[in-house]
# Entry
Amino acid sequence: DAGVIQSPRHEVTEMGQEVTLRCKPISGHNSLFWYRQTMMRGLELLIYFNNNVPIDDSGMPEDRFSAKMPNASFSTLKIQPSEPRDSAVYFCASSLGWGFQPQHFGDGTRLSIL
Amino acid sequence: GDSVTQMEGPVTLSEEAFLTINCTYTATGYPSLFWYVQYPGEGLQLLLKATKADDKGSNKGFEATYRKETTSFHLEKGSVQVSDSAVYFCALSDDKIIFGKGTRLHILP
# Structure
């Protein structure tokens, strides 16, 4: 079975550029989560969707970050404009329902902003 | 609000040693509890879970028991291997999931 698929795996870009990260959740899962992981701050939940609707975006750091889920099989996380402090590994995860259900993580996108 | 506290790492052990990674939680409801493992360059993977008090989750030789009286969910393994080297995350899930900060484990051959 295909797991959560994220692209690209690595992204290096210059400060000020727009960055788009992509995620395909596991088929049939109706909850999707975006996380950011850094050495300093650990794993942070940025936003999560249920049935394609954003439920809680309180973790989104600022207006430069936006996330969409146009359908059940695709989500994007966009940073515009990007800054060096956005450098991190970004994970997408999906689950069947939310709350009590375990999450399935993709392998992440390692983002470096120069 | 709900929270998870796990022991800070890194934890360094020799192969075949006994492992305990402590995890305690605070929650207003009755959450499910999880341990996730993250190997280098990969995302988190569910290791085991427990959904109610006194449940024991187990997988790959790892075990953890949901202790409501001590609000704990400590991870244990009787004999660790080099391949167990990874970062381990304790988590609780009620209306949303909350992760601990992770504990890095190094196993020396």
Notes: The first strand of chain A starts at residue 5 and ends at 7. Chain A has no helices and eleven strands. Chain A touches chain B through 20 residues (CB under 8 Å). Chain A has a mean pLDDT of 94.
